[in-house]
Design goal:
Shape: elongated
Structural class: alpha+beta
Number of strands: 16
Helix content: 25-40%
Largest sheet: 10 strands, mixed
Radius of gyration: 19 Å
C-alpha cells in the first residue's frame, strides 16, 4: 500500500471504433510518461462498462493519483466511484485526465487539449490539486428505486439530450467533432421539438412547453458558458421553442459560443432545480443518456468541493 502512495494508477480507455490504431496513441503516452520518470501502473478498459470496476480496483489498491486517459464518460464513471468511498479515503486521492474520448469538454474547460499530451503530463506531474464541485441528479427509476448520479459537466433534459446522443453516434461515423455536431443538428428536424415541463428554479416556477434545459456544473457543452465547478452553484439554461428561423440563429450562436445571447434562452443560477414534470423528455448526464429516464419528479443539486482534481498550472 505504501509503495503506491507516489505511483500513479492509469486507466486507458481507447476510443473504440474511432481510431484505426488506438494502441499507437497509448504507446506515445507511455513513452512520454517514462521519459519523465513517472512511476505508474496501467490497465486498459475492455469497454465502457468496465470503467467502474477498474477505477474501484485502483481505489481499493491504494493509489493516491488516478489518471483517466479517456473522455467525459470515463471521468463521470470515475467520480461516481470516488463518491462511493468514505470521505477520508476520497480526500486522499487526486483525479487527473489525459483527454482521449469522443467528448472531452471537461478537459477543455481547464485548457487540456487532446493534441497536447506532453503538456498534459507535465501538468499532472506538478500535481496542482483543486477541490471541485459535482452536480447530482436524484431520481426514481422504473423499478421505483431511489437513485442518484453525479456529474462534472451538466444534465440535459429534452432536445439537447437527444442531440448529444446523436452526436455520440455520428462521431463514430464521421470521426470529426464539427461534422458530428453539424449532422446531429440536421437530424434534429426529425426529433420531438418541445416537452411539457414543470420546473422550480429558486423562486421561479416554469410550467409550459420547453425545448431543452441544461443544468451545468461546468460549461455544459456550451449551453452554460459561465458555469464553473468551484462556486457551489449550478447554471441553468431554459430554452423555449423558437420559430424555425430563430432556431437556426440559435444554432449559429451556439457554435460561436454566444448561446446565452439568444432571446429564447433564459439563464438562471441556483443551488437546486426541481422537475415535477418533464413529459417524454430524454435525460443525459455528462453527454450520455441515462439508462432509462427518471420516473416522475427528480431533483438536481450541487455538492461543493468533494473531489480533488489535478488542474493545469
Amino acid at each position: 500500500m505504501e509503495g503506491r502512495n507516489n505511483k500513479w494508477g492509469i486507466l486507458y480507455c481507447p476510443r473504440h471504433g474511432m481510431t484505426k490504431n488506438p494502441r499507437r496513441r497509448w504507446e506515445r503516452i507511455e513513452r512520454l510518461l517514462r521519459s519523465r520518470n513517472i512511476d505508474f501502473d496501467y490497465v486498459q478498459s475492455e469497454n465502457a462498462k468496465s470503467v467502474d470496476r477498474l477505477v474501484m480496483m485502483m481505489i481499493n489498491n491504494g493509489y493516491k493519483t488516478i489518471v483517466i486517459v479517456g473522455g467525459d464518460s470515463a471521468l463521470n464513471d470515475a467520480v461516481n466511484c470516488l463518491m462511493q468511498v468514505p470521505k477520508p479515503v476520497r480526500d486522499g486521492i487526486a483525479l487527473g485526465v489525459i483527454p482521449n474520448g469522443m467528448m472531452n469538454d471537461f478537459s477543455h474547460f481547464w485548457g487540456i487539449d487532446e493534441d497536447r499530451i506532453s503538456e498534459a503530463i507535465d501538468w499532472l506531474k506538478q500535481r496542482r490539486v483543486r477541490k471541485i464541485d459535482l452536480g447530482c441528479i436524484r431520481y426514481t427509476n422504473s423499478k421505483r428505486e431511489n437513485c442518484h448520479r453525479y456529474f462534472l459537466n451538466c444534465v440535459n433534459v429534452g432536445l439537447i439530450a437527444a442531440i448529444m446522443n446523436l452526436r455520440r453516434q455520428t462521431h463514430h461515423i464521421f470521426g470529426s467533432r464539427s461534422l458530428s455536431f453539424l449532422f446531429s443538428f440536421i437530424l434534429l428536424i426529425f426529433q420531438r421539438m418541445d416537452y411539457i415541463m414543470d420546473i422550480k428554479i429558486n423562486t421561479d416556477r416554469i410550467r409550459r412547453k420547453v425545448m431543452t434545459v441544461c443544468i451545468g456544473n461546468a460549461s455544459g457543452y456550451g449551453q452554460t458558458p459561465n458555469a464553473v465547478p468551484y462556486n457551489g452553484l449550478l447554471d441553468v439554461s431554459v430554452v423555449y421553442h423558437p420559430k424555425m428561423t430563430q432556431l437556426f440563429e440559435g444554432i449559429y450562436l451556439f457554435v460561436k459560443g454566444k448561446f446565452l445571447n439568444h432571446h429564447s434562452v433564459h439563464p438562471f443560477r441556483t443551488r437546486e432545480v426541481e422537475f415535477t414534470t418533464a413529459q417524454h423528455a430524454m435525460v443525459g448526464v455528462d453527454g450520455r443518456l441515462m439508462n432509462g429516464s427518471p420516473v416522475g419528479s427528480f431533483r438536481i443539486t450541487v455538492e461543493q468541493e468533494v473531489i480533488n482534481f489535478i488542474i493545469p498550472s
